[in-house]
Amino acid sequence: MKIFKTLTILTITFLSLSFINGQKFKFEKVSRDTKKEAKRYNKDGFVIFPGNLPIQNQLDKSYQMQTQVDDEGFPKWIVANGSSVAQTQAAAEMQAIELAKNRLVGLLETNMKAVIESDVSNNQLSQSDAASITKTIEVSANRVSKKLQRVNPLFKVYREVKKNIEVQVLIGYSYDLARKAMLDEAKLILQEETEDVRKKHEKFLVPETYDQGTINNYVPSTVVIMD
Questions:
Q1: How far, in Å, CA of 63 to CA of 33, rounded?
Q2: What is the H or E stretch that residue 54 is in?
Q3: Is 220:81 a contact under the CB 8 Å cutoff?
Q4: Which pTM value belongs to this model?
Q5: Do 179 and 129 touch, CB atoms closer than 8 A?
Q6: Average pLDDT for residues 144-167, to the nearest whole number?
Q7: Helix, strand, coil tally for the chain in percent (to 5)
Q8: Residues near 86 by Cβ (< 8 Å), separated by ≥ 6?
Q9: Model confidence over 1-20: pLDDT tens digits?
């Protein structure tokens, strides 16, 4: 009886393992244009990092995030690309991510400055006040780019380039969180100013001020070569 039970358990285990091993993981289907773009990366010699999704699926994910909008039609995500060439893969990857982070915050900075310029052109803000607010935003952007956390990697590939390694990455970050970080830093900066200056800038320290116009949420690639 014991032998029979043992054989039964072994048989069931074997059949279960055979079923699991026989299954194949299926990646989501992507569009023809995405496949075409993935082929371009493959042709250029780029390959994926071990364990990452195929290039076409990484691209598909990034495209989907770029098109996601909130209830009012504004982007949910900011997306920025960075590329770097270095002697080691780790160094190239680190520099590519840092470049992407800087460009991501820079895009948000550009969007915010556009709102200020609009107020100047509509005679709602003086040139001197605009210069002051713009300077605050620039300092805030510099601080945020160094502190930016929870960056979501959407795309990451590498290739060999003349005994060096080139890494390309594309990162995504919540538009609302990034803007909040910028405004929080701006508030800290303005604590050093007079009460009169802070009151003049109050309008530009709330998210709603920047929910206007065309909001760009994607920065294309730039290559940095490290010695």
A1: 11
A2: none
A3: yes
A4: 0.79
A5: no
A6: 89
A7: 60, 20, 25
A8: 92, 95, 164, 165, 167, 225, 226
A9: 555 554 454 444 544 444 44
Residues 113, 215: contact at Cβ < 8 Å? Answer: no
Nearest to 163 by CA among 97, 82, 88: 88
- Nearest residue to 145 via CA among 209, 82, 213: 82
On the question of pLDDT at 38 being above 80, the answer is yes
CA distances from 31 to 11, 60, 61, 140 (A): 43, 8, 12, 39
Locate the domains of the chain by residue range: 32-225
* 8 A C-beta contact, residue 107 and residue 219: yes
**Cα distance between residue 59 and residue 156, in whole Å:** 9
* Among 62, 57, 56, residue whose Cα is nearest residue 41: 56
The token pair at 59 is 């691209």
Residue 94, Cα to own-chain centre: how many angstroms? 14
Is residue 105 exposed (0-12), middle (13-18) or buried (19+ Cβ within 10 Å)? buried
C-alpha to C-alpha distance for 113 and 138, rounded to whole angstroms: 9
Backbone angles phi, psi at 147, to 5 degrees: -100, -10
Give the C-alpha separation, 148 to 163, whole Å. Answer: 32
